UniProtKB/TrEMBL annotation:
Keyword Iron: no
A Gene Ontology biological process term: fatty acid beta-oxidation
Protein name: 3-hydroxyacyl-CoA dehydrogenase
Family, as annotated: In the N-terminal section; belongs to the enoyl-CoA hydratase/isomerase family.
Organism: Tetracentron sinense (Spur-leaf)
GO MF, one annotated term: (3S)-3-hydroxyacyl-CoA dehydrogenase (NAD+) activity
Gene Ontology cellular-component terms listed: peroxisome
Subcellular location: Peroxisome
Length: 756
């Protein structure tokens, strides 16, 4: 993270007597402490000067402000940057100096006014914006609450319900809506923005327009009883949607304080609460994710070469199955003309049908109009041969995982596509060198690994071989950004980054079940930890066929650390293949509601016998008293509560143990991925885990979370389990070394063996 000593404001006084204060802190004019001090000084100067009658605040280069400087959070949290005294910014600068000034001020907003940026604007006596401006308080997505008076002023400007929606969902509004809501007073063209604001400020001065201090507005606030009901509902929703998160409730408390006890009390409550949430693990984790996400497109040795992405005007996709149709949907939604090739008319129509259905579901959800659907769909052309491939700039192959089929396709592509065309494969497992073996085009062969459903999931793994040219990667990074994916660039290996981490995740869960832990207890513990679903519910969702196929890849490539089990193949043989067959680890009703199935025990017992393992009292939930050694039984019987039930309690693995036994092997594998140079930086694995696996972002990603527990602790637990349960848990060399040094897992490596 950078230093907070940056940025400034400048002030120019016009002949009209209006002082124009401009915030300058590229790239988004964030409010560093320096900017805030300078803003205060500019204001004080403007207030002192007799030739200044009114003030306009704006941001340089078409951006008002992206809010408080996020790069300063690390320093403030770690004590490296001195905290301003409580209330200095929110009360002294924003409320007293700006809002309480005896000269009127107007915010001229172009581009964005987010977080602290909007809070400064709300303290002005009016706001004028351009039609493309975006305004919002997205602090909650960083684990924070608004800290410069936003919890008090926004409800007073737009009403409580809308303010709660904007804050709790971190959802900005566009200028037009902001105008309707009363957050913006007028909309002006960009070249007239500042002049309109100047005139508005003079109009306020001369009482031709109202002089409004937002903090004391009451007309938009609901009556107290109604407000309390709205807040009560918001609390219920917040608890339901994010049971592990406290800061949304803290935000609601600050809003309530202002409504019940008045805005000054609300401001002070906000000041205290902001300090508290700033120091929270949630905030540190979410800030890590913010920077990690922006860091994925900075690839050393690739994006620092000064290459300019070539324009991709047309894309061809091979295969209209689930993946191919999802990828086609993502591309046409971002206005790329797409050719979809299939092997026969029937498959082609089915593929086009899937794309239509994907779009239709957006219409149903109100995210798209029927008219937009028609326009978007007109970008898709179905074909059965390669003739129209002669002018495409990129091809994405998304056929089944069959090596010889893919080799044939790539040989054909080399013949039909122009020489500059990028040849991408959506394979999730097969070596790209093998796929391109029958071509001479290795420098333009690349992996574009999407996640299902491809038009929804935010991650794109860009897989490069040693021969893939940097230009091709830069091009694909650009396409990824345009189709709103977060791309991570990884090296070529079985499973790349995400599936490499997924394997131990599901294998650890099966190991635990064979040792006696309950399937549903595992899913509950993992969901409570924050995953969208547990490992068994997930296997049901992806289907046992896929789980077995990818499992085989892992067992073949990494036999020494694979936990081999027949549980899933055995269930599949019995026609239990997951949600699609209505039966897997759960049974499903017509509405796809999952219920536990006692029958599962039968399969677990069989697979336990095949694996040659026994129930381990340390992990078992269902051990009965009769199974205990006599001396322990005796001791327990002497206890007044000694019965099967209490024994079950004693033997039960805690949720914490389950989480660690399932996720520490994932951390271990992530360490290998990093040590092998498959991922270039730990933060890319944080993003891979959050966006590819559903790892809770408020835990900061897999490596960040690992570091929060410490390499020594993870190492010692893995050693303990590897003694009991074998190689599967054995810590890798990287983890062992980091633990020995007491070093963090994420810190840059001294000598990465980059495979890239
Ligand atoms: C007390 C207050 O209430 C607390 C606060 O204000 S907390 C801050 C609230 N503000 C936010 O949450 C906004 C966060 N920023 C964003 O959402 C987006 O960056 C944006 C909408 C402003 C711009 O998006 P986009 O144009 O896609 O560019 P994006 O790549 O995200 O950002 C451009 C650069 O600005 C940086 N940046 C963005 N917002 C920043 C901020 N508030 N502080 C410091 N740097 C910021 C990014 O890190 C990135 O840096 P890089 O080029 O070195 O990677």
């Amino acid at each position: 993270m950078g230093s907070s000593t940056k940025g400034r404001t400048i002030m120019e006084v016009g002949a009209d007597g209006v002082a124009l204060i401009t915030i300058i802190n590229p790239p988004v004019n964030s409010l560093s402490l320096d900017v805030l001090h300078s803003l205060k000084e500019s204001y004080e100067q403007a207030l002192r000067r007799d030739d200044v009658k009114a003030i306009v605040i704006t941001g340089s280069r078409g951006k008002f402000s992206g809010g408080f400087d996020i790069t300063a959070f690390g320093g403030l949290q770690g004590g490296k940057i001195e905290q301003p005294k409580p209330g200095y910014i929110s009360i002294e600068i924003i409320s007293e100096t700006l809002e309480g000034a005896r000269k009127p001020s107007v915010a001229a907003i172009d581009g964005l006014a987010l977080g602290g940026g909007l809070e400064v604007a709300m303290a002005c006596h009016a706001r004028i914006s351009t039609s493309t401006a975006q305004l919002g308080l997205p602090e909650l997505q960083l684990g924070l609450i608004p800290g410069f008076g936003g919890t008090q002023r926004l409800p007073r400007l737009v009403g409580l319900s809308k303010a709660l929606e904007m804050m709790l969902l971190s959802k900005p509004v566009k200028a037009e809506e902001a105008h309707t809501l009363g957050l913006v007073d007028a909309i002006a063209p960009p070249d007239e923005l500042v002049n309109t604001a100047r005139q508005w400020a003079l109009d306020i001065l001369e009482r031709r327009r109202p002089w409004v201090a937002s903090l004391y507005k009451t007309d938009k606030l609901e009556p107290l009883g109604e407000a309390r009901e709205i807040l009560k509902f918001a609390r219920i929703q917040a608890r339901k949607q994010a049971p592990n998160l406290r800061h949304p409730l803290v935000c609601i408390d600050a809003i309530e304080e202002g409504i019940v006890s008045g805005p000054r009390a609300g401001l002070w409550k906000e000041v205290e609460a902001f300090q508290e949430v700033l120091q929270s693990d949630t905030c540190k984790s979410l800030v890590n994710i913010f920077f990690a996400q922006r860091g994925t497109s900075k690839v050393p040795g690739i994006t620092d070469l000064g290459l300019v992405p070539r324009r991709v005007k047309k894309v061809a996709i091979l295969g209209g199955g689930l993946m191919g149709s999802g990828i086609a949907t993502a591309l046409i939604l971002s206005n790329y003309p797409v050719i979809l090739k299939e092997v026969n008319e029937k498959f082609l129509q089915a593929g086009i049908g899937r794309v239509k259905a994907n779009l239709q579901s957006r219409v149903k959800k109100g995210k798209m109009t029927q008219e937009k659907l028609e326009r978007t769909l007109s970008l898709l052309n179905g074909v059965l041969d390669y003739e129209s491939f002669r002018d495409v700039d990129m091809v994405i192959e998304a056929v089944i995982e069959n090596i010889s089929l893919k080799q044939q396709i790539f040989a054909d592509l080399e013949k039909f596509c122009p020489p500059h065309c990028i040849l991408a494969s959506n394979t999730s497992t097969i070596d790209l060198n093998l796929i391109g073996e029958r071509t001479k085009s290795h420098e333009r062969i690349v992996g574009a690994h999407f996640f299902s459903p491809a038009h929804v999931m935010p991650l794109l793994e860009i897989v490069r071989t040693q021969k893939t040219s940097p230009q091709v990667i830069v091009d694909l990074l650009d396409v990824g950004k345009k189709i709103k994916k977060t791309p991570i660039v990884v090296g070529n290996c079985t499973g790349f980054a995400v599936n490499r981490m997924f394997f131990p995740y599901s294998q650890a869960a099966i190991l635990l079940v064979e040792r006696g832990t309950d399937v549903y207890q595992i899913d509950r513990a993992i969901t409570k930890f924050g995953m969208p679903m547990g490992p068994f519910r997930m296997v049901d969702l992806v289907g046992f066929g896929v789980a077995i196929a990818t499992g085989i890849q892992f067992v073949e490539n990494f036999p020494e650390r694979s936990y081999k089990s027949m549980l899933i193949p055995m269930m599949q043989e019995d026609q239990r293949a997951g949600e699609a067959t209505r039966k897997g680890f759960y049974v499903y009703d017509n509405k796809r509601k999952a219920s536990p199935d006692p029958e599962i025990k039968k399969y677990v017992e069989k697979s336990r016998i095949i694996s040659g393992v026994t129930v381990d009292p340390k992990v078992s939930l269902s051990l009965s008293l009769s199974q205990l050694p006599t001396h322990i039984k005796g001791k327990l019987r002497s206890h007044v509560f000694a019965n099967d039930c209490i024994w079950t309690q004693l033997m039960k693995l805690s949720d914490k143990d389950i989480v660690e036994m399932i996720f520490f092997p994932v951390v271990n594998e992530a360490c290998r991925v990093l040590a092998e140079g498959i991922a270039v930086k730990a933060s890319d694995l944080d993003i891979a885990a959050v966006m590819g696996m559903g790892f809770p972002p408020y835990r900061g990603g897999i490596m960040f979370w690992g570091d929060s527990l410490g390499s020594k602790y993870i190492y010692s637990r893995l050693v303990e389990w590897s003694k009991m349960y074998g190689e599967f848990f054995k810590p890798c060399a990287y983890l062992t070394e980091r633990a020995a040094k007491g070093a963090s897992l994420s810190a840059a490596m001294e000598q990465a063996k980059s495979r890239l």
